[in-house]
Amino acid sequence: VTSTPRDDPGAVQRPRVRPYVGGPDATSDAADPALTDAAPPTKPGLRPFVLTSGRVTSLDPDIGLETQVTTRPAAEIWVTVPVSALPPEQRAIVDLCVEPVSVAEISARLGMHLGVTRVLVSDLRDSGHLDVHVADTLAANDPEIILRVMRGLRAIS
Amino acid sequence: VDSVRFPEPSSGTVYGRPATPPSGAPTPVKIIIAGGFGVGKTTAVGAISEIVPLTTEAEMTAAGLGVDDPGDARDKSTTTVAMDFGRVTIDEQLKLYLFGTPGQARFGFMWDDLARGALGALVIVDSRRLDDCFPAVDYFEHTAVPFVVAVNAFDGLLAHDLDQVRWALAVKPDVPVVQFDARERLSVRDTLLVLLERSLSRSGGAGAGQYVAPVA
Fold first, then answer.
1. Is the reported ipTM for this assembly greater than 0.90?
2. Lowest mean pLDDT among A8-12, A57-61, A136-140, B182-186
């Protein structure tokens, strides 16, 4: 007995590629978890990896969701392309990272697909516009770090 | 003509890549909030996060979990999933991120990327729909990531008590199963503390106490 895709409840969750996620206002209805879990409606737009000239495989595995990114202080910048000449998406990233920001936040705040964000962040590091602060993944096993997080959470009231 | 010269990269720096990691940015740590569709993951993130939960979209390789037809060519594919996350600034040099992972049981458990370096995972369970959390429990049982099963008490009520939940999920005796309310900041906080206590004992840290009582 073979099931047709139509019979398969999973079939409604076909792979879906969309360049820009909705802004926080579109999906942040925290009051209703069912809403935020649901796939947001598809919007027309550029295919996501147009922004990266189709590159998806150059991902640096060290660039995680939580990895902190900062704009290089102007004095240290040695770049062939001035910030003002960067494509708008890249300029937006450089502008956003004046304070340390995570890759996930860049993706969410600029409405950019996470994979695209990672490629662009990696490019901007290579071009000297950004510093990517690759954290030690061993931090998760560091009792000092865990205790600090616990103290921090206990301070929440 | 030779009159235009580009400046040299500063010494000690490979072009675009500093020889030593730059300092000054906070250390990020993360906790994964997992569970089935609509069990309250985003609610829990929102209850404790200092920012309104943000959403990012990511592509994940989907394993054919729960697929009962091995001949199905679609049993492995790439899917785009939305992920909600929040943030808690612990101190100037430490930021905690909470990533609510996609609820689809069928997809998204190729999470190695997300799980790498995580302090731990909270698997949120709706006691009326226990099977929704099986994929998450399965996943974390096979990783080194410490996890806690947190039963979200909708309106303070559980369809099954904690012992029944533990029995149904067949988690190891050392995995805490606690009751909490995803809407309550302090309840989420205390549940995270139960998880971190477990992370701490896994890390061999001094001061790791015994797991105490379920959170009411």
1. no
2. A8-12
Cβ of residue A57 closer than 8 Å to a chain B Cβ: no
Kindly report, residue by residue over A28-54, the tens digit of the pLDDT. Answer: 344 444 444 444 444 455 566 666 766
Q: Smallest Cα–Cα separation from B144: which of B122, B169, B113, B116?
A: B116
Q: Which residues of B touch A149 (CB under 8 A)?
A: 29, 90, 94, 96, 119, 196
Strands (E), A1-156: 68-71, 101-102, 130-133
Provide CB contacts within 8 A for B150, sequence distance 6+.
Answer: B44, B122, B123, B124, B125, B178, B179, B180, B191
Q: What is the pTM of this model?
A: 0.74
Give me chain B's average pLDDT, please.
78
Q: Which two tokens stand for residue B22?
A: 């730059």
Is A150 part of the contact surface with chain B (CB cutoff 8 Å)?
yes
- For an interface test with B, which of A153, A154, A157 has the most B Cβ atoms less than 10 Å from its Cβ? A153
